[in-house]
Design goal:
- By secondary structure, this protein is of the alpha/beta class.
- It has one domain (about 45-200): 3-Layer(aba) Sandwich (Glutaredoxin).
- It has helices spanning about 10-35, 45-50, 75-90, 120-125, 135-140, 170-180; strands at about 55-60, 65-70, 100-105, 130-135, 150-155, 160-165, 195-200.
- The strands form two sheets. The chain has a five-stranded mixed beta sheet with strand order 4-3-2-5-6, covered by helices on one side. The chain has a two-stranded antiparallel sheet with strand order 1-7.
- The chain starts with 11 loop residues before the first helix and ends with a strand.
Amino acid sequence: MAIKETKKPLTKKQKNYIYTGIFFAIVIMLFILNNINSGPDAGPYPPYYLDSQKSKLKLADYKGKVVVLNFYTTWSNDCKKSIPQFTELKNDYKKDSLEIIGINLDGITQNGITFSEVIPFIVSYKINYPVVIGTDKLLNAYGGISIIPTTFIIDKEGNIFSKHEGTQDFKKITIDIDKALEGELSKDKIKAFEFSLRQIN
């Protein structure tokens, strides 16, 4: 005659242990999923870059100043021509409430194959203003950048004052900078997208 093993019902204490374990397992799983590709400027970035660069630049830190955002790449001939003029602008307006921010797009253009040239480019062209890594999210926030270089001038209230695409006309750029520095504000009142991006230099 076969003997069957009778199973004792779980005690209340045992059930509590099981429920607690399940709860913590769910919490840990949700934490892991929430932190995959997290952050406003999630990459991908080369590992060596993430290891060596920890600082971020926030547009909000320049509130009350006129800001020039220059979207550029190292492989664009127009960018190579315009970068020296931006460094001159930085020198010419260093006593004014003006900041120039270079937004590099090498990491998200041409499959990122020129990203390794970014730092040598900064050194070679003696860029004297902060440069950050641009993201797809940022491009979309600024209306989708389809022409490189593209430059935005942001007024003291944080609105987009003007936009300059392609070959940079520095006479027009300088005129717009002067107007914004004198207190003229954007007529359209379109807020510049606030960002927090990894800074290179």
